[in-house]
Design brief:
Chain lengths: 113, 114
């Protein structure tokens, strides 16, 4: 069965600095990987996904993620953090077939001005 | 498209009462998912439907919970009777029929059971 781990409950970064939110996964086949963001009192919003092809995926709001098959990781990155990026971030994985996404526990990102 | 629509946005009820949460998925989406989010347990998948048919309800916590999808544009999640530990935010999500398609989430219903 597929699973995903987000090792950090909280990430703090200063505004303007680069940010990384970590995610590792486990699947039996080729993974489909997703990142979502949740702002307070809102639903989850899709940021980006990796299906196949280029290991560096670009998404909404300047975010990108790097797929690393050997390390089974899919870390979310942004070159310069904004205070408005402060939110809860979820990594998710899907194995073969159209099964539901399996979500990590989430990482709370706090960008400090 | 208006996205996934959920109602009500907030519900406050007393223990023992019946609660019905509603969801309208995005038109053309074949899959519908119900999730529950709490601080303690995070995001939990309760049940999901494909073409209005329940596929997996193993996440439904108890027989007090039931879900239906009478047509492609409407689903309900019912809790009867409700208990304080059911207090959570309930999300509905929908997606198209493909393994590489993302799920689109509604704004959620915040349920408080007193």
């Amino acid at each position: 069965a597929q699973s995903v781990a987000q090792p950090e409950d909280q990430v703090n970064v200063a505004e303007g600095n680069p940010l990384t939110v970590k995610c590792t996964y486990s699947v039996s086949g080729n993974p489909y990987l997703f990142w979502y963001v949740q702002y307070p009192n809102r639903g989850l919003q899709f940021l980006l996904k990796y299906i196949t092809g280029d290991n560096l995926v670009k998404g909404s709001y300047g975010f990108e993620a790097e797929f690393n098959k050997s390390q089974t990781s899919f870390h979310l990155k942004k070159p310069s953090a904004l205070v408005s990026d402060s939110a809860l971030y979820f990594c998710a994985v899907r194995d073969v077939g159209n099964t539901p996404l399996v979500f990590g526990k989430g990482t709370r990102l706090s960008v400090i001005a | 498209d208006a996205g996934v629509i959920q109602s009500p946005r907030h519900e406050v009820t007393e223990m023992g009462q019946e609660v019905t949460l509603r969801c309208k998925p995005i038109s053309g989406h074949d899959y519908l998912f119900w999730y529950r989010q709490t601080m303690m347990r995070g995001l939990e998948l309760l049940i999901y439907f494909n073409n209005n048919v329940p596929i997996d309800d193993s996440g439904m916590p108890e027989d007090r919970f039931s879900a239906k999808m009478p047509n492609a544009s409407f689903s309900t999640l019912k809790i009867q009777p409700s208990e304080p530990r059911d207090s959570a935010v309930y999300f509905c999500a929908s997606s198209m029929d493909s393994s590489y398609n993302e799920q689109f989430f509604g704004p959620g219903t915040r349920l408080t059971v007193l």
